[in-house]
Design brief:
The complex is a heterodimer of chains A (113) and B (112).
Chain A (H helix, E strand, L loop, with lengths): L3 E4 L2 E4 L5 E7 L5 E7 L5 E7 L6 E2 L7 E3 L5 E6 L8 E8 L8 E2 L3 E5 L1
Chain B lengths: L3 E4 L2 E5 L4 E7 L6 E7 L6 E7 L4 E4 L2 E6 L4 E6 L8 E7 L8 E2 L3 E6 L1
Parallel strand pairs in B: 2-11
Antiparallel strand pairs in B: 1-3, 3-8, 4-5, 4-9, 6-7, 7-8, 9-10, 9-11
The chains are: A mainly beta (113), B mainly beta (112).
Chain lengths: 113, 112
């Protein structure tokens, strides 16, 4: 049982480049989320999805886009990367409403130079 | 929106001692309060949670208490072991589509 899988684990981008982070879960969870983690700032919600084909903005959505074409996958895109987007990105999923019992992936370390 | 404050930011204890981490929240409508443990290089993992209709919950060496009136909740770890060393996050949720608000984390170090 893989749980939540994120790819890639590490990535270095130049300012202005674009990339997509992939999150896949095999637990048949309805809800999926993208968080970013910065030193001393905890986890901040970027975007989330309450089901296939739906997305919504979180606390810090600017500069990011997401898509949920399939229930098991949640993609996070950066169209034009900026140094302020250097962070560790975590995908999570949950099986019920209310953010209960989030299951996290192992993270993607992104550096934007 | 919800605001969660977590203290202390760092905590160092001797093996066998107890550790306590405290969180306060601002939105009285929040009703679910999980605690996550994050080991180095890994994603956070749920270790214990509590709902607003319960005052205390215990699971072996860890326990969580909730004071709804004061809007604060705490994590208690007894008989700490070196493997308890990690970053601990508290969170609060109102049940609306899973939008949990996290505290800034506490780095716990247990010295052998």
């Amino acid at each position: 049982n893989a749980g939540v899988t994120q790819t890639p684990k590490f990535r270095v981008l130049k300012t202005g480049q674009s990339m997509t982070l992939l999150c896949a879960q095999d637990m048949n969870h309805e809800y999926m989320y993208w968080y970013r983690q910065d030193p001393g700032m905890g986890l901040r919600l970027i975007h989330y999805s309450v089901g296939e084909g739906t997305t919504a903005k979180g606390e810090v959505p600017d500069g990011y886009n997401v898509s949920r074409l399939k229930k098991q996958n949640f993609l996070l895109g950066l169209e034009s990367a900026a140094p302020s987007q250097t962070s560790v990105y975590f995908c999570a999923s949950s099986y019920s409403q209310g953010g209960e019992k989030l299951f996290f992936g192992s993270g993607t370390q992104l550096s934007v130079l | 929106g919800e605001n969660v404050e977590q203290h202390p930011s760092t905590l160092s204890v001797q093996e066998g001692d107890s550790a306590v981490i405290k969180c306060t929240y601002s939105d009285s409508a929040s009703n679910y309060f999980p605690w996550y443990k994050q080991e180095l290089g890994k994603g956070p993992q749920l270790i214990i949670d509590i709902r607003s209709n319960v005052g205390e919950k215990k699971d072996q060496r860890i326990a969580v208490t909730l004071n709804k009136t004061a809007k604060h909740f705490s994590l208690h770890i007894t008989e700490t072991q070196p493997e308890d060393s990690a970053v601990y996050f508290c969170a609060a949720s109102k049940g609306n589509a899973g939008k949990s608000t996290f505290g800034d984390g506490t780095t716990l170090t247990v010295k052998p």
